[in-house]
Design brief:
This protein has 266 residues and is α/β, with parallel strands linked by helices. The protein is 41% helix and 24% strand. It has two domains: 126 residues, Periplasmic binding protein-like II (D-Maltodextrin-Binding Protein, domain 2, 3-Layer(aba) Sandwich), CATH 3.40.190.10; 88 residues, Periplasmic binding protein-like II (D-Maltodextrin-Binding Protein, domain 2, 3-Layer(aba) Sandwich). The structure holds arginine. The site of arginine has 16 residues, from loops. Its main location: other.
Length: 266
Amino acid sequence: MKRNWLVGLVGLLLAIALVACGASNEDGASNGDTKESKETLVMGTSADYPPFEYIDSSKGDDIIGFDVDIANYIADELGYTIEIKDMDFSGLITALSSERVDFVLAGMTPTEERKENVDFSEIYYTANHMIVSSASNKITTPEELEGKKVGVQLGSIQEDKANEIKDGGVGMEIITLNRIPELIQELKSGRYDAIVIEDTVANGYLKSNDDLSGENLPNTEEAGSAVAFPKDSELTEEFNNVIKDMKENGKMDELIEKWFAQDTVE
Ligand code: ARG
């Protein structure tokens, strides 16, 4: 009986000691003197873009993907930690030029127009434009978009492409939305006749949606993805060096294999 009491007391004292210890540790960390602190870089992205960046709700609510792995690898190499900020794709350039984010990794294509406001790394992955339509009502050429309702992502180069086709004389209605999954939904429900998105992203949806069909836009210049930075950021060169290493040491191929050989996207 007495022994039990003693065991209880010791346990209680231990618990108090642990709590006290935890508290003092926390204090230490907040003063920044117990942990060696790495500089945190804020990455802007639009997590609507599997397999580049997206949330797989069956696995959790973290943003995952090809771009996230690239960012983590580069950060590790350079000794930074990364914090991800999710926003609409159309807001990313402004987020960079107002320095609310340190860099953007969002499958973003380096265009002349964007280069007026931001700097880009080397291209790390190339892509083409694709017309995605319903399998039962296939649209395979830009001319067939005549009279159709066509969805594109707001602020994307696919929006520019659709406008170019329209200006070239194909009468169609172009509708812009912020998020790729919404475009897919509108297409699947028949509210749109087609959408124009990147083949690298379309392929994932095509694999898991038999009711959709995709066709690459003919005669278009290849597009690609690069990291974007605020103008004159020192990070551009640092990142470029690591991207170059990744292309040489097989890391980039390994990540391409990991993310683009997958066969399902909801
Ligand atoms: N590559 C295209 C562009 O730069 C589309 C990128 C869209 N990215 C995204 N995370 N939604 O315009």
